[in-house]
Amino acid sequence: MIETIRISEHLADFALGFDLAAVPSEVRTRATHLMLDAFGISLASTQWDFARQSLAGLRELAGDGGDVPVIGYGQNLPLRDAVVMNAILIHGLDYDDTHPAGVIHATTSVLPSALGLATRLKADGRAVLQAYLLGMETATRMGAAAKGGFHQVGFHPTGLIGTFGCTFSAANLLGLDANALVNAQGVALSLASGSLECLEDGAWTKRLHPGWAAASGITAATMAKHGFVGPRAAYEGRFGLYPSHLGALSQNCDLSMITAGLGSVWETMNVAIKPVPACHFTHAFADAASILSKQWHGSPIARIVAKVPPGAMKAVCEPDEKKKRPSNAYEAQFSVPYSVATGLRFGRFSLDALDPEAWQEPETLALAALVQCVPDPEADFPRYFGGEVIIELADGRILQHAEPINRGAPGRPISNEDIVTKFHENAARAVSRSHADNVLNAVLGIEKTTAVHLAALLGQKAK
Predict the structure, then answer these.
(1) CATH number of 348's domain
(2) CA spacing 20 to 30 A to 419: which of 83, 237, 251, 319?
(3) What is the structure's pLDDT at 459?
(4) DSSP state of 250
(5) Mean pLDDT score of the chain
(6) Which pLDDT score is estimated for 53?
(7) Is residue 57 within a helix (H) or strand (E), and if so which, with residue range?
(8) By CB neighbour count within 10 A (0-12 exposed, 13-18 middle, 19+ buried), where does 448 fall?
């Protein structure tokens, strides 16, 4: 009888043979730009209350000391606390990249995990980039295999699946052997978490998910390095990741996607950069409304219809009353009605839309109240996060615009040059142009620097 190779064993074999030298140059270049985007967002986040309050809590837990810099705060924390904090900074504004097929923000957990551990180990920049790419290539595939199922049952793939990507990232830096790599994945299964209940009331817990994934991945890999034993069927087992979290929906999964194309098809190239600081599911609506704003000119509106992919409805359209009257910035970021109203009024959804004055503004709320979200069964979801806005004017005219492929998705990629522009816009909220340029040069030239240098540069105190 031939024994079937488990997924964790297949992935371990791939991870052991993973070598940055074999990664195409365009993939490495794109990866450094994904990193740059994340660091620009993290610098902008330092100016928000959620960041200061998160740091206060982690500082109290950590006590004195620490050897890993916190981005933009001029202070250090112990390794696991630092990666939690840095991930909160990257993900906290919901402006970070997404892998559409996996419906996962992979960079926000894998990057702070790789940089934090590499800083502790005093590794070079090539090691950081290699660990980052390995984490990205594994996490994105694991998310895609669920075919959007995790969101449907209330689990956040960024925290849940991110833990496994960070486990591979950490295992690569720690030099785990094949058996330890399998055990590490099994340990990660018991540490992975992330509930989407926060979407019901705008709670902050989603911001914590990627950091917890980063800390959990480092923990899983380090425990396995020292012989801690984990279950070997971490994914397909009776109580493995997919059966235990998806139940009946696990029948819709395609677990072959987890290992398909490893080392030849680069999912890192399919990661979408966010042009809008909100849930990716809302982008097409913000953009469509922004385009329609040029035709609208403030004419009285009878009704607005937003055609939404059925798989996105729970996250950005329900409950209806909260989506139309957000009580905090987080609810605003996960609201199709607010995105449509903001796009119509201002022709753009920027970070300014997250200010209390914006989501409490009566005229914007009046427009949001007119938005009716309806499911669009023709949407190509989750391949793309598209949408359509139809405005019925009081005089009978109809204005409509569809964005079937959201800006930044693989079908409409944002260029590396656009990423640089976005980085400078975000970084300018917290640091001088000269410091931003130093960060940019270090990140894009990461193969010629060290983790300690990059972490120290990022850790310098922002304004």
Answers:
(1) 3.30.1330.120
(2) 83
(3) 98
(4) G
(5) 95
(6) 97
(7) helix 49-62
(8) exposed
Point out which residues pair with 69 in neighbouring strands. Answer: 76
**Which strand ranges, in their side-by-side order, compose the sheet holding 387-393?**
371-375, 301-308, 387-393, 398-403
Q: pLDDT tens, 322-331? A: 999 999 888 9
Task: Convert the pLDDT of each residue in 397-420 to its tens digit.
Answer: 999 999 999 998 878 889 999 999
Q: Which of 462, 458, 417 is nearest to 438 (CA)?
A: 458
In DSSP terms, 195 is beta-bridged to 155
Mean pLDDT of all residues in 292-319? 95
The tokens 């009978």 sit on which residue? 396
According to DSSP, the β-strands at 371-375 and 301-308 are parallel
Other beta carbons within 10 angstroms of residue 397's beta carbon come to 12
> What does residue 306 show for φ and ψ, rounded to 5 degrees?
-115, 120
Length of the chain: 463
Residue 208's pLDDT is what? 97
DSSP structure string for 60-114:
HHH-S--SEEPTTTS-EE-HHHHHHHHHHHHHTTS-S-BBTTTTB--HHHHHHHH
CA dist 252 → 34, 169, 282 (Å): 30, 28, 25
pLDDT digits (tens, 9 = 90+) for 340-373: 999 999 999 999 999 999 999 999 999 999 999 9
236 shares its domain with 351: no
Which residues have CB under 8 Å from 341's CB, separation 6+?
A: 289, 364, 365, 367, 368, 371
What is the extent of the structural domain holding 386?
Answer: 280-403
- Is there a domain that residue 408 lies in? no
| Exposure class string for 288-315: b at 16+ Cβ within 10 A, else e | bbbbbbeebeeeebeebbbbbbebbbbb
Average pLDDT of the residues in 118-141: 98
Number of domains comprising the chain: 2
Residue 2 domain-assigned (yes or no): no
196 and 239 belong to one structural domain: yes
